[in-house]
């Protein structure tokens, strides 16, 4: 629609965007008690009209320091990486280039605060059908070579 190239972010790119310069458990600090200001998760995602926990429209909670909404909770977000151990260090460590499970980040509307931490990682089979999954795309800058 925009004519721009978009991709799923790598796991490292996702975490960098989520943290927004922070080094704490969440982009806003370490306290679980503050999570409800920034995220939909199991403790606050009840829809009173429907009588069930569920995802909510994006942008209803506070954004992180870089203005990104819903990095914690609401929906687990697919990453481009396959599940496996990090190799190396630095801003963009390498991960397996293939496999059967892809990495999920962010936690969801049905999870506990632990799963909404900036560093928490989930995994799932991309062919599977479970609730609470979504995605966020990254725009590729002109002149950047994709792997």
Description:
The protein has 147 residues and is mostly beta strands. The protein is 6% helix and 17% strand.
Chain-wise SSE layout:
Layout: E1 6-7, H1 11-19, E2 46-47, E3 52-53, E4 76-82, E5 102-105, E6 121-124, E7 133-134, E8 138-139
Parallel strand pairs: 4-7
Antiparallel strand pairs: 1-8, 2-3, 4-5, 5-6
Distance between the termini: 23 Å
**Count of helix runs:** 1
Instruction: Summarize the main sheet.
Output: 4 strands, mixed
Instruction: Briefly note the structural class of the backbone.
Output: mainly beta
Query: Level of helix content?
Result: under 10%
Average pLDDT score = 90
Shape: globular
Strand order of the largest sheet: 6-5-4-7
- DSSP, total strands: 8
Rg from Cα: 15 Å
Strand content: 15-25%
pLDDT < 50 runs, ≥5 residues: none
The ordered string of helix (H) and strand (E) elements is EHEEEEEEE
What descriptors fit this protein?
147 residues, mainly beta, two-stranded antiparallel sheet, 8 strands, 17% strand, globular
Overview in brief:
It contains one helix and eight strands.
